[in-house]
């Protein structure tokens, strides 16, 4: 069975990637396994000195669910089964890690519209994922 990984940040661009995957479902005899991934940024500073670790985990989980909500709704309305994952860390590393661990066949990711200079200077998550991963990447613009 094919497995797709969709990194979801809650943006309209991420919704475009979900819409594309929904369109692609008719292409396959067997519906691919869909994995949604939301990567939360670690909290800055020494927050763990003041806030219990379980509260921090709960916060990240709730924020991740907020980001995934639109994707959940779109897939639910289309009757497409999915699994979701929320993690904390570097988005590029997390995407590569999940794609490898889940043995995904394709990463479907949306590109944000940044200026050429911004992409050259900072590099985007999408560019870095495409450079790092050995998995095929479907880039949705």
Structure characterization notes:
The protein has a single domain, classed as HUPs (Rossmann fold). It has 5 helices and 5 strands; from the N terminus they run βαβαβαβααβ. It has 141 residues and is of the alpha/beta class. The radius of gyration is 16 Å and the shape is globular. Helices cover 46% and strands 20% of the residues.
Sheet having the most strands? 5 strands, parallel
Structural class: alpha/beta
Q: Would you identify the CATH H-level superfamily?
A: HUPs
CATH second-level architecture: 3-Layer(aba) Sandwich
* CATH T-level topology: Rossmann fold
Domain module tally? 1
CATH domain class name: Alpha Beta
Number of helices: 5
- Rg is 16 Å
Low-confidence stretches: none
Number of strands: 5
Please give the alpha-carbon distance between the first and last residues: 26 Å
Provide a brief overview of the structure.
The chain has helices at residues 12-24, 53-78, 91-101, 116-122, 125-132; strands at 3-7, 33-40, 83-88, 106-110, 137-140. With 141 residues, it is α/β, with parallel strands linked by helices. It has a single domain, classed as HUPs (Rossmann fold).
